[in-house]
UniProtKB/TrEMBL annotation:
Family matches, as PANTHER family: D-TAGATOSE-1,6-BISPHOSPHATE ALDOLASE, D-TAGATOSE-1,6-BISPHOSPHATE ALDOLASE SUBUNIT GATY-RELATED
Protein name: Fructose-bisphosphate aldolase
Key word Chaperone present: no
Binding site for Zn(2+) 2: D103, E133
Residues annotated to bind Zn(2+) 1: H82, H179, H207
Cofactor(s) this protein requires: Zn(2+)
Annotated catalytic residues: D81
Cross-referenced SUPFAM superfamilies: Aldolase (SSF51569)
Binding-site positions, dihydroxyacetone phosphate: G180, G208, G209, T210, N229, V230, G231, T232
Record-level Gene Ontology MF annotations: fructose-bisphosphate aldolase activity; zinc ion binding
Pfam family, one: F_bP_aldolase
Protein EC: 4.1.2.13
Alphabetic keyword roster: Lyase, Metal-binding, Zinc
Length: 284
């Protein structure tokens, strides 16, 4: 079923699990992602950046995700990831995305509040959920690099101040993960997460899921994280397989012969992640 983020996260919270939010970089990846949800019977969030939505078409993503979601008994959300431009957010809402993120994390908090309020005022009456972000997460996201000197962890006082003014459906935190594939990427601040989760009953989001150890992910889930973003790991799995496939391709081969293995790879990665996020094979 097609659902907004609020509904999908409520479904997850009721079951004591977290939902995976997986970045699609092209339309080709989407059916494989939904097959992972079908085969695990777990909810899923498909997310795109504005750049990918511009490339494929906002309405095209909506049509494909909605059609496939209606065939599943679990909630499926289509989410706009890390948007900073109100025009793009409006485009996603108008096209039928069921959730949007306004990323005002690098703005002064007053401006982050003001702009998130604007986004909520547009999205909420249209039944579209809103994710906000506090604290600055390092690494590269859709070509934009935040280096380690700019990183700042989410401050509990900032969360209180923010939530006094804004109602959001999910809040992304900076607690030690990094966007992108890094060997020593996660030095997770579990105490900070616990403090924020204990003070505020808001659904919390972990960005930069690639490369975080399964046991650390599960510690985050048991401490209040309900949405976990994974992008780079899928991109690597898809591209690595594509390189292998196309290196041996005959120019007249049907493309599907080479794309099916790429999609199969990401389906397996997603299924494995979903099992960890659902606290199956629990390691905590
Ligand atoms: P990774 O690419 O590190 O998995 O992060 C994805 C993400 O957080 C998208 O918002």
């Amino acid at each position: 079923m097609y659902a907004n983020l609020k509904e999908t996260l409520a479904y997850a919270k009721e079951r004591g699990i977290a939902v995976g939010a997986f970045n699609a970089h092209c339309l080709e990846m989407v059916p494989a992602m939904l097959h992972a949800a079908k085969e695990t019977n777990l909810p899923i969030i498909i997310q795109t950046t504005a750049g990918t939505a511009d490339y494929v078409g906002y309405d095209v993503f909506v049509a494909v995700v909605k059609t496939l979601a209606e065939q599943l008994p679990v909630p499926v959300t289509l989410h706009l990831d890390h948007a900073t431009d109100f025009a793009k957010i409006k485009q996603a809402v108008d096209a039928g995305y069921s959730s949007v993120m306004f990323d005002g994390s690098t703005l002064p908090i007053a401006e982050n509040i003001e702009k998130t309020l604007e986004v909520s005022a547009y999205a909420h009456p249209r039944n579209v959920s809103v994710e906000a972000e506090l604290g600055i997460i390092g690494g590269a996201e859709d070509g934009v690099m935040i280096d380690s000197t700019q990183v700042s962890f989410t401050q509990p006082e900032e969360v209180s101040q923010f939530l006094q003014h804004v109602t959001v459906d999910a809040l992304a935190l900076s607690i030690g993960t990094t966007h992108g594939q890094y060997k020593s990427k996660a030095n997770l601040q579990f105490d900070l997460l616990e403090t924020i989760a204990n003070n505020h009953a808001r659904p919390l989001v972990l960005h930069g899921g690639t490369g975080v150890k399964d046991e650390d992910i599960q510690k985050c889930v048991t401490r209040g994280i309900v949405k976990i973003n994974v992008g780079t790991e899928l991109l690597i799995a898809w591209t690595r397989t594509a390189k292998h496939q196309f290196a041996k391709a005959d120019l007249t081969d049907s493309l599907r012969n080479h794309l099916i293995p790429c999609n199969e790879q990401i389906k397996q990665v997603i299924k494995a992640k979903m099992a960890v996020f659902a606290l199956e094979k629990a390691s905590v």
